[in-house]
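To illustrate the input format used throughout this study, we show a single complete record. The first block contains the structure-token representation of the backbone; no residue identities are included at this stage. The design step must infer an amino acid for every position from geometry alone.
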């Protein structure tokens, strides 16, 4: 089979390797589609760590950083009872950078890392793992009664933010307001259900937690200090941070009083993945518009450059193209 292997930063190689065999609790799938995780792909291409403190060495683990994959079950291990050959499945979690990744024609997953799915085109389901990640944040907000009937803001309209808009709508937000500096991302947000879209400027939404225009709840999908603090200055109750945080955030007197909560990220879990899958199947979350390009995996390097130039939101690669 063929697999993508970063031999050095900037040098992903499409090479032949033996097709893996599943262990007792594993499933071998034929990968039919795999979507980019833009920040991860760009970091690995550039030789930069994705998460603070995460060791990064090359040659990188073969098939990584590919993890948003869907496909067809080919073979199951001796202890697997929930899957059988021919089933369509999608990965709901990243198995870790030290496990062979799914930028490949075939990939082995732990059975517990997969969910059975309807027969959907790859663009509709390959990014289930990302939808699960956003669902984790919504699960925490829903427990706090911070979504239904709330004026809900989303900061950053990359793939995560565009999913968050749809989930806010699905979970009953009274109004969804989205922020991004790129006009084309704001247009996509409107198409996916945002009531209002703005560039994150002082003029777009005046500072103040208790003005008539203030937001009740916001979800930051950038991890950037400037974005988070912009939302904190305009949110009455809760700011949840989904984006990978690399900077210290200023929490001051303006945020201290009247029950304000600044919330970090939660834990990935299968139950959140199933809830996200249910939304996708119902049509409340549509992942297809996020896939702005479909390419053969042999054009991986060209695809990453599209992400770098922000000419693509996500790319779905075909390992067999």
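Output of the design step:
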């Amino acid at each position: 089979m063929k697999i993508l292997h970063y031999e050095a930063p900037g040098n992903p190689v499409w090479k032949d390797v033996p097709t893996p065999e599943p262990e007792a609790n594993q499933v071998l799938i034929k990968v039919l589609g795999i979507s980019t995780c833009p920040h991860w792909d760009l970091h690995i291409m550039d030789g930069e760590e994705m998460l603070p403190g995460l060791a990064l060495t090359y040659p990188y683990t073969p098939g990584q950083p590919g993890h948003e994959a869907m496909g067809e079950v080919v073979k199951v291990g001796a202890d697997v009872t929930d899957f059988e050959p021919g089933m369509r499945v999608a990965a709901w979690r990243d198995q870790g950078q030290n496990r062979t990744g799914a930028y490949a024609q075939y990939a082995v997953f732990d059975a517990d890392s997969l969910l059975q799915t309807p027969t959907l085109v790859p663009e509709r389901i390959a990014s289930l793992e990302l939808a699960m990640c956003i669902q984790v944040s919504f699960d925490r907000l829903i427990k706090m009664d911070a979504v239904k009937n709330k004026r809900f803001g989303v900061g950053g309209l990359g793939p995560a933010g565009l999913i968050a808009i749809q989930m806010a709508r699905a979970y009953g937000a009274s109004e969804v307001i989205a922020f991004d500096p790129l006009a084309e991302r704001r247009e996509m947000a409107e198409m996916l259900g945002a009531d209002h879209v703005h560039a994150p400027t002082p003029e777009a939404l005046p500072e103040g937690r208790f003005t008539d225009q203030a937001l009740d709840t916001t979800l930051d999908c950038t991890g950037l200090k400037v974005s988070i603090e912009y939302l904190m200055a305009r949110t009455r109750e809760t700011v949840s941070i989904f984006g990978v945080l690399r900077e210290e955030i200023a929490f001051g007197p303006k945020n201290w009083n009247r029950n304000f909560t600044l919330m970090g990220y939660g834990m990935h879990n299968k139950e959140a993945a199933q809830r996200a899958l249910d939304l996708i199947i119902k049509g409340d979350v549509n992942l297809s518009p996020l896939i702005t390009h479909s390419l053969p995996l042999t054009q991986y390097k060209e695809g990453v450059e599209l992400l770098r130039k922000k000419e693509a939101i996500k790319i779905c690669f075909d390992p067999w193209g």
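Structural context for interpreting the output: The chain has two domains: 2-127+288-318, 130-263. Residues 128-143 form the longest helix (16 residues).
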